[in-house]
Amino acid sequence: MKKIEIGHGSGGRLTRDLIEKLFLKYLDSNELKPLEDAAYISFESPRIAITTDSYVVRPLFFPGGDIGKLAVCGAINDLAVSGASPKYLSLSFIIEEGFLIRKLEDVLKSVKMASESAGVKIVTGDTKVVERNKCDGLYINTTAVGEIIRLLVLDNISDGDSVIVTGTIGDHGTAVAIARDEFQIDASVESDCAALNSLLTPLFDIEDLKWMRDPTRGGVATVLAEVADKTSLGIEINEENIPVRDDVKFISDMLGYDPLYLANEGKAVVITSHEAADEVLNKLRLHSLGKDAAIIGRITTKHKGVRLKTKIGGERVLDMLEDDMLPRIC
Amino acid sequence: MKKIEIGHGSGGRLTRDLIEKLFLKYLDSNELKPLEDAAYISFESPRIAITTDSYVVRPLFFPGGDIGKLAVCGAINDLAVSGASPKYLSLSFIIEEGFLIRKLEDVLKSVKMASESAGVKIVTGDTKVVERNKCDGLYINTTAVGEIIRLLVLDNISDGDSVIVTGTIGDHGTAVAIARDEFQIDASVESDCAALNSLLTPLFDIEDLKWMRDPTRGGVATVLAEVADKTSLGIEINEENIPVRDDVKFISDMLGYDPLYLANEGKAVVITSHEAADEVLNKLRLHSLGKDAAIIGRITTKHKGVRLKTKIGGERVLDMLEDDMLPRIC
């Protein structure tokens, strides 16, 4: 068994061989093992959050992660920023005929490591195989379910609230851009791809925590533009307070990107009352994933939309991402 | 907006336009509308079943259904055969650049119709766009969650149990085969694609209901071979009792297929005690989707594996599907 064949998606003998010999080697929860059509799971409370994402990142392997780690962390993060505690994950593969089993195994190792270290169980899955040129190696869907701890909705946000990011921005977008041969850049930026539940769950205790979002596609700017649009509030951001790694800044300048629009896969935008901002910041900074957390701006009723105060004293309007210069970032 | 562009997957302005102008036109549950990263849902009990499947069916539209209807019904059926009541669905699209918005709209109409008529809510979703020749038009992942009513596990099955199918077999496989231009067959077989929850839920009251499965990829034969293998019991099937439409039989013969290995998308294999078999049969036949239900065989300890008694008095061993003559059937 060296390459994926069409028969591995047949639902027959070859599918079963693939699942039993490869998948179960890495994914072995009690819920998954019966290999039935559905998995039986249980919660402590019947109030659940659910999220789904399909991952089509190119290339499949990049500094700091791969599509497997990304698919697990992405699902976990979507629940964590929604005030939920992620518990169970489904995992669905679409694989291109001819894909190397060895690569699939590498992805499964990442899935195992990422899910185990985040304390989330993979309980059900699916595998489809399509012909050559009907996929780009491998696409993965993950759907995660977890228990709601805090209801975090946009309505919570009000004038004067603080806007925090949990760390440096643009790392993932830059790492993936570099990993694409087309740019021929020799630099070593790693994706920030990480599960944020252990970082964000401690914040659920803070009453004045308002809302969170992980700024993936479209970056921090797009998330803030959405918040401003949906709440009809304004947001003021100070460029000098935004944490950006020097190398990310340098490469972005070179490629014509703005880190504010680059994808992150291990960061959150956190909105909290002005009064609770320091407490949130302190809790975040206790965690290795939050050591660079910073207050980058505030909610205002003085204007609509998002305005960025630049380092040189100017002001710029930040709108949602218009052109996708880096498609298939996740 | 006539065709899908790369930017529709950017997470920025174009993605939002697509979601607000097209998706929300057809999918409008209160849980989905906030368009947050995760949806908040609630159950009456914290004992949940979860299932996931990615759909890559070719062609996307076929007599009796399309990829949208299939993706909704498939998820619902996986829960229904597991003894659960489907409640919520996630929906994730991978779309090829250039895909016609008109076609996407047709798929969304099917999704809406299938989910509404089955009483299941679509609560969260995702859209990714990939370049030309990195997909085949459209792939869909659905993940469904529902409340467990009955725990149906293979361990329940024992010697003497009856094996029932809820209707004619091989309809979906035949319909899709015909819909592929490659075969140039002029016949009108419709896929049986349907949500089975309203058919199967009434069976949950029957104490001697043992186990169910919807025989999709690999067909009835593969499902039974798996049951025999996992339980170490034998299964005896009588060919003359297996309901097969005449046109399905005719076309299968012509193409060299065996209806027992063809996919079904609106049928279930039901295993029940011998004593309860008539009650199950009667309940099934009350429903339009179960009118052709039949007892096709029984569980035995006299041999291992699945044996088919043919109409002409012979005997044939049924194993799991070996060659996939009809890939991408779902």
Descriptive account of the structure:
The structure is a homodimer of 330-residue chains. Chain A contains eight helices and 14 strands. The model of chain A has no long low-confidence stretch (mean pLDDT 96). In chain A, α2 runs parallel beside α3. Chain A has two domains: 6-148, 60s Ribosomal Protein L30, Chain: A, CATH 3.30.1330; 154-318, Phosphoribosyl-aminoimidazole Synthetase, Chain A, domain 2, CATH 3.90.650. In chain A, the strands form three sheets. In chain A, strands 9-11-8-12-10-13-14 form a seven-stranded mixed sheet, with helices on both faces. In chain A, strands 2-7-5-6 form a four-stranded mixed sheet, covered by helices on one side. In chain A, strands 3-4 form a two-stranded antiparallel ribbon. Chain A has helices at residues 13-26, 67-80, 101-118, 171-179, 197-200, 219-231, 246-255, 277-285; strands spanning 39-42, 47-55, 61-62, 65-66, 84-96, 121-130, 138-148, 162-165, 209-213, 234-238, 269-272, 294-300, 305-309, 315-318. The first copy, chain A, has 330 residues and is an alpha+beta fold. The longest helix of chain A is centred in the first third of the chain and has 18 residues, at 101-118. Chain A is 28% helix and 26% strand. Chain A is globular, with a radius of gyration of 21 Å. Chains A and B meet through α1, β1, β2, α2 and β5 of A and α1, β1, β2, α2 and β5 of B.
Give the arrangement of secondary structure elements.
2 copies of one chain form a homodimer.
Chain A: H1 13-26, E1 39-42, E2 47-55, E3 61-62, E4 65-66, H2 67-80, E5 84-96, H3 101-118, E6 121-130, E7 138-148, E8 162-165, H4 171-179, H5 197-200, E9 209-213, H6 219-231, E10 234-238, H7 246-255, E11 269-272, H8 277-285, E12 294-300, E13 305-309, E14 315-318
Helix pairs in contact in A: 2-3
